[in-house]
Recover the amino acids of this structure.
DNA sequence: ATAAATGTAACAAAAATAGTAACAATAAGA
DNA sequence: TCTTATTGTTACTATTTTTGTTACATTTAT
């Protein structure tokens, strides 16, 4: 089970709650319950997508690159699931069969539209709003 | 990469094109370019979902349990991705952290809504229509 | 200087997925 | 009735993906 989206969202919510103050991968890892290196790996993806930035050296850590109210779950999805292969198409169908010859291309189109519908739904929720929902449960 | 949805769709398109005539897992496997046992495994899921039925014995095989015009890609998705864990939630976040304590529940809700948007999009396409699209490319 | 971080690479472990073989049960047809 | 073709299912192996773990050069605050 791929949980990068979930962990990435967790990271961003933490950073939002500590807005401004850098948070180390070690502290984040304790909340997520995993290892700092995994957190740093995902932070690399988030940073590449322009969602976070990091400060090197003692007292350093990660922080949001822009307000949590401007980051949606769709941004998170796009940052970590770069390939967009939620639903994969099987490789190598028989080209001598009229179905096998063209099903990949056709299915890719349908899957692409479906995943886009998922992304649009994800874009309805910001990190700030999600953080509010989460903290309201405590 | 999980390709069960893709293979299941392939199977149903084949059955639609041979409507009425049972097709053996061997013949289907040749078009998909995989092994009959995998086809039979997926056919078991499709059969449980009421989309196909099989005839035992010589000359047997699988056929659609209802017209391809009444089966949508959402039916296929629901049949094969029974767990609905397209986007998994990471296990075991720290319950002593306000975020870790409640993020799973909140994220599951968001993911569920997003996957539902994907399912609604998939429900717009029937096997019959997809078969038409595919054969139009030949 | 020292200590605390990141970023990244390398590798091990675990989990998920697909490939393969085998066989009892079933049904059609000679 | 015998033979043959086929399913449904199990067990096992191989491959791929994902996560866990360690290590270390580099950077920066104190």
């Amino acid at each position: 089970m791929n949980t990068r989206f979930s962990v990435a969202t967790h990271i961003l919510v933490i950073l939002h709650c500590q807005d401004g103050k850098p948070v180390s991968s070690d502290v984040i890892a304790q909340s997520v319950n995993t290892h700092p290196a995994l957190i740093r790996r995902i932070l690399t993806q988030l940073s590449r997508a322009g969602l976070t930035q990091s400060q090197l050296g003692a007292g350093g850590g990660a922080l949001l690159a822009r307000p949590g109210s401007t980051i949606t779950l769709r941004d998170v999805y796009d940052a970590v699931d770069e390939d967009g292969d939620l639903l994969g198409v099987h490789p190598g169908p028989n080209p001598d069969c009229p179905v096998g010859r063209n099903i990949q291309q056709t299915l890719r189109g349908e899957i692409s539209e479906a995943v886009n519908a998922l992304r649009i739904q994800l874009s309805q929720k910001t990190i700030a709003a999600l953080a509010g929902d989460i903290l309201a449960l405590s």
